[in-house]
Each structure stands twice: as C-alpha cells, then as structure tokens.
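Section 3.1: Structural characterization of target chains.
Under the original work plan, the team committed to producing a structural model for every single-chain target entering the pipeline before any wet-lab resources were allocated. The record below documents one such target. The sequence was received from the expression subgroup and is listed exactly as submitted; it comprises 265 residues.
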Amino acid sequence: MNRRDFIRNIPKLKEIYVIHSANTKLPFVFCHQETMDDYVILYTQEEPAREKAKELIAFKKPATVVRCKEKEIAQIFSSLKVLGINAVEFIGREAGEDYLVQTSEFLRWKDFSDKPEAQRPVENPGLQLSLLYFLQEYRREADAPDRGDIQGLSEEVYVNLTRSRFMLAAQPIEDGERKGQSALMLLKNKEGAAYLPLFTDLFELKRFAKDQLPKQIVGADFQRVVSILNQGEAAGVILNPSSANYPISVDKFMEIKEAFAQDEA
C-alpha cells in the first residue's frame, strides 16, 4: 500500500497500538530529527509496538503500549490538537509501511480564531506539549543516558503557563453560612495539603471527572489563578491531575510569575 492509499484508509482503522509515556499517562511525544515535527507513533500491530516500548525502557524512558479500538481511536485523534502534536508516524502491517503524516492530512478541526477569546474552547497546546517533553525527561532516573535539558524544558513550561487559560471545577456548598454558593474544588495530597487543580482543556477535565462533568466550570487565566492563590486556601496548584499530575507550590508559582509573566498593560 502506497502512502496516499494508507492515508486514505486511516479513518477505517479498527485497532491501533499507541506508545504511551508512563511519566505522563499520555502518548509519548517525539521530535523528528530532520523535520522537527512533534509526533506520536501509532502501530497497526501489537508486537512492533511492544518492541518499541522495550527499546525506550532500555534507555530508561518508561513506556507502555495502549491498545485502542474504534471509539478510542477517535478520541486519540481528537486529542492531538490540544496536545500540540502536529504529526503521526504510522507503522502499518506491511514491510515499508512507515509514514510520517501531518495531522492536517487526515484530520479537520473547527477554526475559532475569529471568535472573541471568551468564546473559544479552552485549549493550551503550547503548554501541553512543553509539559509532555519536560515530564518525559524530568521523571526519568537521574542517571538516565542522554537526559534532556531539564532547566530549559522547565522554563518553557513556565513561560507557556503564564500565557494560558485554564478550566477550574467548582462545587456547591451544602451547609454553613455560605450554603447555596459555590467553592472551587481542591485536591488533597498524601500529607493533607490542598491543591487547586488546573485543567488545560476539556479532555483533561473529562479524564479527571470520568465524563461526569462538575456542575460549574470556571475559566481563569494565569493572573486570576495568582489571585486565587493569594487568598491562602491552597498550598499550590496541580496541573492536569489525571495525566501530568504536576504540582507547583504557591511559592514556586509566585516565582514563575515574577520571572516569566509579562507585565499587564
């Protein structure tokens, strides 16, 4: 099957195997050395996928293979945009079926660029992509070979963090003086410290809520999150608790504000 025919048949795929990073619980993202594409690898057969995962593990890059069927394939494809991934390497059944395909060649997304910001879906592909690259390296063993530039990768996350809009979950207060009002949801860690969960997009909120969305969803930019943290109820934030699960303390969040946030006009 040539490349054109393979691309034409992508919507007909009944089963694929996706290389996931154990450090992010999301597809393992790679940077193509020649084209500089940010891409994920999808296989149509299980055994080659498992061989690739073993290869990554040998280099101390924790990886797993996730089997996806029709509905799950659609979800994977739909999530590529919000993850900032612009290409997919498809490994087919036949020898030589190894194609790097731009997502624009087989996917179409609605364009909301002409809408006011408040009417656009909350999506942060730049933050998501930088977070994936960072955590894939940061959570490797310290002596792992060819470990990436952790400081540079973390700073890219922090810059994107200050430019992002988030989704926050709220819940009704059932008793006390504020009964009937709403309060932002907080998550407690093992030590009992409460953290404010920040969701980068609807996919992440659904993953956390298992499709049972909270009754109230609040939008917040970086500066609003700063204001919330200044109220003193949370010990910090936690980015995408069901995937990246990356906590940032209040002190660190304020350091990020001072170092990377642009001054408001």
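The CA atoms of residues 162 and 257 lie 7 Å apart.
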